[in-house]
Amino acid sequence: MLLKRLLLAVISFGVAFGLTVLITMFIGTTPAEYGPIYMFFTTLTIGLAIAIWLDKFMGTNLLPK
Question: Kindly report the CA angle at 54 between 65 and 56, in degrees rounded to 5?
Fold first, then answer.
């Protein structure tokens, strides 16, 4: 179960970081110009949203029913 939860965290935040980089490129800036604090909080927010969905589909039961 711990392995599934670690895998969930790696997948969700990896995908979230990739999406954040794509979003910054789409709006016409670089991640360095966007700023490390904004990158962190944008990645965190998107990552948590992805983690909620992955929790349901991977069956890790991180969230209570």
Answer: 25
pTM above 0.90, yes or no: no
SS3 27: coil
Q: How many separate domains does the chain show? A: 1
Residue 63 lies in a domain: no
pLDDT above 90: percentage of residues in the chain: 85
Residue 8: which of 48, 46, 41 has the closest Cα?
Answer: 48
- Secondary structure (3-state) at 1: coil
- Give the pLDDT confidence of 1-19 residue by residue, as tens digits: 899 999 999 999 999 999 9
Supply the range of the domain harboring residue 43.
2-58
Is residue 41 included in any domain, yes or no?
Answer: yes
